Amino acid sequence: GAVVSQHPSWVICKSGTSVKIECRSLDFQATTMFWYRQFPKQSLMLMATSNEGSKATYEQGVEKDKFLINHASLTLSTLTVTSAHPEDSSFYICSAKSRDGELFFGEGSRLTVL
Amino acid sequence: GNSVTQMEGPVTLSEEAFLTINCTYTATGYPSLFWYVQYPGEGLQLLLKATKADDKGSNKGFEATYRKETTSFHLEKGSVQVSDSAVYFCASGRAGTALIFGKGTTLSVSS
């Protein structure tokens, strides 16, 4: 089946630094990618919708200047957490939509900010 | 707004026991409904789905029926295995759009 890969799968950084997470669709072109955030024992919360070649659409309450999303190609979207703080520690998951509308999820990236 | 509510876990069962994980939804119109499974250390995988009322999704012995009258999509399996231990997420949404997820239910099956 279709595969979506996230990298890194886990990252630890110091407070104030920026971290980039990549989401790649390995064997299909993804016109749209979604970024979710998951807190322990909580649901996945949609952060933003990313369309190739255009600006991402952020959900209410998500700071677009803090969570920079770039969807430069049909197989790659990146999420950059800028000036990370401990409260940004979370599990970030991307989902890619194939041309026939199916959704495929990455393995997730666990961010820990010290 | 739209939402998905699923039973809180953890659910602890013995092998070969019957499993039910309840899921209800609120939505405008009639969304598609999904069950995703997340095995330890892995990403979410689609387990089954149903796109309209009375549809039954099934996969790997799991079943769920889209009930419009009760706005439910309960997950069932007649005989669970240790390998079914995972976190199960109920979700709703339109095809190709971002999904709305429940909080997830952890299932632990012991031999």
Mind explaining what this structure looks like?
The complex is a heterodimer of chains A (114) and B (111). Chain A has strands at residues 4-7, 10-13, 19-25, 32-38, 44-51, 57-58, 67-73, 76-81, 90-97, 103-105, 109-113. With 114 residues, chain A is mainly beta. The radius of gyration of chain A is 13 Å and the shape is globular. Chain B has 111 residues and is an all-beta fold. Chain B is built from no helices and twelve strands. In chain B, the strands form three sheets. In chain B, strands 2, 5, 6, 10, 11 and 12 form a six-stranded mixed β-sheet that branches. In chain B, strands 3-9-8-7 form a four-stranded antiparallel β-sheet, with no helix packed on it. In chain B, strands 1-4 form a two-stranded antiparallel sheet. Chain B is globular. The termini of chain B are far apart.
Draw up the topology in text:
The complex is a heterodimer of chains A (114) and B (111).
Chain A: E1 4-7, E2 10-13, E3 19-25, E4 32-38, E5 44-51, E6 57-58, E7 67-73, E8 76-81, E9 90-97, E10 103-105, E11 109-113
Parallel strand pairs in A: 2-11
Antiparallel strand pairs in A: 1-3, 3-8, 4-5, 4-9, 5-6, 7-8, 9-10, 9-11
Chain B: E1 3-6, E2 11-14, E3 19-21, E4 23-26, E5 32-38, E6 44-50, E7 56-59, E8 62-65, E9 75-77, E10 86-93, E11 100-101, E12 105-110
Parallel strand pairs in B: 2-12
Antiparallel strand pairs in B: 1-4, 3-9, 5-6, 5-10, 7-8, 8-9, 10-11, 10-12
User: How many helical elements of chain B?
Assistant: 0
Assembly state (oligomeric): heterodimer
Q: Write the H/E string of chain B, N to C.
A: EEEEEEEEEEEE
Major beta sheet summary of chain B: 6 strands, mixed
**Number of DSSP E strands of chain A:** 11
- Main structural class of chain B: mainly beta
Rg of chain B is 13 Å
Mean pLDDT of chain B: 93
Uncertain stretches of 5 or more adjacent residues of chain A: none
The residue ranges of chain B in which pLDDT falls below 50 over 5 or more consecutive positions are none
Q: Note the total helix count of chain A.
A: 0
